[in-house]
Amino acid sequence: MSACGGVAECSRCSWRGEVLATRRGAIMAFAFGFLFLLLVNSAGSQTAPTRNAGVAVGAQYDSTHVYVSPSDLDAFTTSVVATFGGHASKKSVTNVLPVPSSTDFQYIWTPVGTFSVFSYQTPIPYPFGQERTGYLVRDMDEALREARSSGAEVIVEPFKDPIGRDAVIQWPGGLKMQLYWHTTPPQYGPLQTIPDNRVYVSRDRVEDLVKDFVTFAQGRVVADDPHADAGEIGRAGETYRRIRIESQFGKMQVLVTDGHLSYPFGLEVAGYEVTDLSTTLTKASAAGIKVLWGPKVAKDRVSAMVEFPGGYIAEIHSPRNGGRFTKVN
What we know:
By secondary structure, this protein is an alpha+beta fold. It has one domain: Roll (2,3-Dihydroxybiphenyl 1,2-Dioxygenase, domain 1), CATH 3.10.180. 26% of the residues lie in helices and 34% in strands. It has helices at 7-47, 73-84, 140-150, 206-217, 277-286, and strands at 63-67, 87-88, 92-94, 103-110, 113-120, 133-136, 153-161, 164-170, 176-182, 196-201, 220-229, 239-247, 250-256, 270-273, 290-297, 301-307, 313-319. Helix 2 packs antiparallel against helix 5 and helix 3 packs antiparallel against helix 4. The protein is globular, with a radius of gyration of 29 Å. The relative contact order is 0.13. Mean pLDDT is 86; it is low at 1-51 and 322-329.
């Protein structure tokens, strides 16, 4: 016997069945719709283009190029490690240029920046020795296309070295840098602090330099102070324009001046950030490094200018009042 109690009951059951069917249909439609959205979103997350990170790999792969005489190579390497920590590679004798040459080469890893050190046994051909830094790129051909389209001049076309390819480019205002690519990608840990590439430029070319480099590096201007304390560059009581740029390549500090600079300003290539400047300068002095100027207390940092054995000049600073800048690693 059916559980139904009669015609009226059957009608009610029928109505209930219709309601339940409708609800089940709505639930299934919602479920399928939700599943469809998940699939679309999942596919979108896999295929949608991400923000262009540019051709840079990371600040830990961007080295300062240092040229010293063979008689100063060991003293320079020892002084860097004693001051900043880290370690140096073994020396190798090689040709890293597109023309015949020979250099002792040594790489130094430190927590505050990396160094490519060249000690040539032969004359250095033009324009090598004028490039300030070496920036690792993901793809050399793409990097040169981006550099050219951004306003740079390729002054040394790509050439092979023992472990990859290199080229040298120049930006408005005369800033020269080397781009390099390795056949086997290097694997370095991130830096504790990222050094400044300190670039001096005239007011005639600064706008082109900043615009072009920021475009190439996919970077951003994080500070542009038209009235920075010129005591930072040895001109107490005056002001100057100071621009700070950050990108995946690292940091760049653009110093806009009239060229009336006292020694040693304008001769430094990089500025290294340390936790405590006083402690670092004590280590530096013990390692044979000369303090040429400072320490100078500025708004957000305390800085000094130093000379390493072999003549390499650098700025060293420590932050004050929370003045540490954002890392880009």
